[in-house]
Design goal:
By secondary structure, the protein is of the alpha/beta class. The chain has a single domain, classed as 3-Layer(aba) Sandwich (Rossmann fold). The protein is about 35% helix and about 30% strand. It is built from 8 helices and 10 strands. Strands 6-7-8-3-9-10 form a 6-stranded mixed sheet. Strands 2-1-4-5 form a 4-stranded antiparallel sheet, covered by helices on one side. The longest helix has 18 residues. The protein is globular and about 45 Å long. The protein binds adenosine-5'-triphosphate (ATP). Adenosine-5'-triphosphate (ATP) binds next to strand 2 and helix 1.
């Protein structure tokens, strides 16, 4: 079954064409790495798939439903309830503790505080963060913060986890540890993953790599 799909998507920023007829289809439970040169349109494609940007033309489908034609409110609810996100710089909320950060997607979806924190806590042992739940993001290393961000991305069991350069700010060993945890956790809960990366070693963790060039998805590599 297809989880998420872009069909012939085009999007320009003013005069700059970022996507020029990009198509990609990601199966349910599949982990796909989006590779390609700087400026080729990888992040724009990810943002279109995730309902953050609306294409000028083409279609985005999630679980068989067209989502690019939804209202901003509906797309925002879809992102909150069905999608998870991990970015290059964890983007944890500095005022919250690590476990509050992980619980955040659940709290925003209306889960009560106690229940949300109870669901967040097991992620600390799972991701090698035992004892760090009460720390704030300023008191975590880059790798620890990125594992907290990963837990936050997965805690609500999203249909799709979108990860934009999730290891881009980490040294290679720490990056590989985060990738191993990302892949293991996503597989355990059957989460589909769309991952943008420059790094071939990171992409090698995916089931499949797609290459974006000049705003098109023009090559498929099975790893
Ligand atoms: N908000 C924006 N406003 C104007 N132009 C943009 C914007 N975002 C992206 N672009 C342009 O669109 C094109 C594609 O950008 P995008 O960020 O998708 O590429 P990318 O492949 O993710 O690049 P990188 O690997 O460097 O992050 C580039 O030419 C970029 O300059």
């Amino acid at each position: 079954m297809t989880a998420i799909e872009a069909r012939d998507v085009a999007l320009s920023f003013g005069e700059t064409p970022a996507l020029r007829g990009a198509s990609v289809s990601v199966a349910s439970g599949e982990i796909v790495a989006v590779m390609g040169p700087s400026g080729s349109g990888k992040s724009t494609l990810l943002h279109c798939l995730a309902g953050i940007l609306v294409p000028d033309s083409g279609e985005i489908h999630f679980e068989g439903r067209r989502i690019d034609t939804l209202s901003e409110t509906e797309r925002s609810a879809l992102r909150r309830d069905r999608f998870g996100f991990v970015f290059q710089f964890g983007q944890l909320v500095p005022e919250l503790t690590a476990e509050e950060n992980v619980a955040l997607p659940l709290l925003l979806s209306g889960v009560k505080r106690g229940a949300a924190l109870a669901q967040a806590r097991p992620w600390f042992d799972r991701l090698g963060l035992t004892g760090l739940g009460r720390r704030r993001s300023g008191e975590l290393s880059g790798g620890q913060a990125q594992r907290v961000a990963l837990a936050r991305g997965l805690v609500a069991r999203p249909g799709v986890l979108f990860a934009d350069e999730p290891t881009g700010a980490l040294d290679s060993l720490t990056g590989e540890q985060v990738m191993e945890l990302l892949v293991t956790s996503a597989r355990e809960q059957g989460t589909t993953v769309v991952l943008v990366t420059h790094d071939a070693r990171v992409a090698a963790y995916a089931d499949r790599q797609v290459i974006v060039r000049d705003g098109k998805v023009n090559a498929l590599v099975h790893s």
